[in-house]
């Protein structure tokens, strides 16, 4: 039996075969129908004429007939929507492989499956390498947790900042989703910061409930962990990310003075510069000029505009001077070398600095610097206390 396409195709013979022929004959018809639809030389009008015949084959009681038809549609991208949805409604064994591979799905088809399909059909859409922007947005907005998790395994599913925020708003309390979010290198920093804050709050709550340590000690320990996590995020951030993260921290009252002191204690002066520039309302280049220019008045002016407490002025000024010296010498100072030089500067320079202030700055270094530098600062502070 051979089909000869004509402008007005007589399909009565096909119906006869479907009604009276056995499964072997219907399988042959399925092969020819699929080949006819797959042939680009046939016009859309001609292909549409056989759609009713194909729809009857799509619901054939013999699975082999239906499977043969679907196999013939592999690679066909211009299937009639009625055919597409008829196949999707078939048994899972036929429908799911079709959903995984067919190029015939457009964004409307994908959305329809996501809205009315079961979890298995929705999952097939989430896995597709050609998942549409509309389908992706639908899953992010209203898809189940499992469906959103599948998206993380689809390299074609690209999330923008809005998508990440939507996922975090919906599933920020779900550890599996949070872990997947934190594993993404392009996750917005404000989400990382919020998660650090949320994790520290949980830690504090747990310590309080369990009464493991005194409340004051618990609060200090949690604050230390939170600030350390935030600083780590800022240190690893690009300049573009810092431009968004610093204002975000300020808006949430999270850019506390101790974060800048921590940054200074380990020589992360880029974080200090970005923070001071934003707090003082000056450009990044102007902040650099005031931090590393000649004399003390420049930094004093910058510090005054920033609104930071006077208690952190000395260590920030000393850190600027140590960084400036390192640049002049052309040496790269790791956290330990920077910390050692910072101690030296605080103890030998700044003739107007009172011993009480030097001791306070040693306390800062003893809390926030690199481990070995902390020990040096603590011993030196103890020696000063004994000498007094």
> How many DSSP E strands?
0
Approximate helicity band: over 70%
**How would you classify the quaternary structure?**
single chain
Overall mean pLDDT stands at 92
Model regions low in confidence, pLDDT < 50 over at least 5 residues: none
Order of helices and strands: HHHHHHHHHHHHHHHHHHHHHHHH
How many alpha or pi helices? Answer: 24
N-to-C CA distance:
109 Å
Class by alpha and beta content: mainly alpha
| Overall body shape | elongated
Largest sheet: none
The gyration radius over C-alpha positions equals 34 Å
What fraction of residues sit in β-strands? under 5%
How would you summarize what this structure contains?
The protein has 388 residues and is mostly helical. Helix content is 73%, strand content 0%.
Structural write-up:
By secondary structure, the chain is an all-alpha fold. Helices cover 73% and strands 0% of the residues. It has helices at 12-20, 23-38, 44-49, 51-58, 63-72, 81-88, 92-101, 107-116, 119-127, 133-142, 145-152, 161-171, 175-182, 189-210, 215-236, 239-251, 257-265, 269-280, 284-292, 297-306, 313-329, 335-348, 355-368, 371-387. Helix 17 (257-265) packs antiparallel against helix 18 (269-280) and helix 22 (335-348) runs parallel beside helix 24. The N and C termini lie far apart (109 Å).
